[in-house]
Amino acid sequence: MRTWKFWRRLVVIFLLVIGGSAMTAFDRHQVHADWWSASREPTGIAPNPATVKEPIIQVYAARAYNWRGYFGVHTWIAVKAKDAPRFTIYEVFGWRAYRGGDAVVVSSRAPDSRWYGAEPTLLAEVRGDNVNEMIDRVDAAARSYPYKNSYTVWPGPNSNTFTAHVARAVPELKLDLPPTAIGKDYIPGGGIIAAAPSGTGYQFSLFGLFGVMAAAEEGLELNFLGLTFGIDFLSPAIKLPLAGRVGFENTAPQG
After folding, report:
1. Across the chain, how many H-helices and E-strands are there?
2. d(CA 127, CA 205)
3. In what order do the strands lie in the sheet with 237-240?
4. Which of 120, 138, 167, 210 is the most buried (most CB within 10 A)?
5. Confidence category of residue 35, pLDDT binned at 50, 70, 90
6. Cβ atoms of residues 202 and 196 within 8 Å
């Protein structure tokens, strides 16, 4: 009887957490009826390449388009080599894979543009003379991504699987992907153990559905059916599915 009461209470707590997270996500995210009319305007977060000459790498996240934004975010990586006149953007588009094309897109769009109306958040940034070599590793990792021709919204591989894959090749980014980055725990190549995307710890994951991560940057995370629950100790916060972080904001690591 006591065992049944324990599990019943656990289920109730779980449902309350999910319900609260859902309400928070719905409050934060606005659905745009038409993708072609949703804003893609820059937000002023990224530096101007015309005046900032040093090499830079930035990682962004924004709520996904339409109903998917209630559940998760789309992430991308922006790089600018020394004296380069513009940023180069690396990201994955699911619709390209659905049509039989290469899902990895390399473009020169504004790095800090809205993602179909959703405002982006800067997750990580590094600058300095040593960043050019890191940019080469970003490019190599992006072009070696093993799922160029496949895309699955849940549990992956998707755009967040791609960003985590690149981040593992450039641990200097110390990238802490948000709990809403569904697919970040899908380990490429069918592996079950890998370095955390930040490079500051390790994770165990079964096809992005069940797993655990322990890392200095990410803290402690539990992945259940692709949903992330966790605790960030560096920037104290609770990590929840749908809602994201509850607590202090995660300041983008800078180098």
Report:
1. 5, 12
2. 32
3. 193-195, 201-206, 210-215, 219-224, 227-232, 237-240, 244-247
4. 167
5. low
6. yes
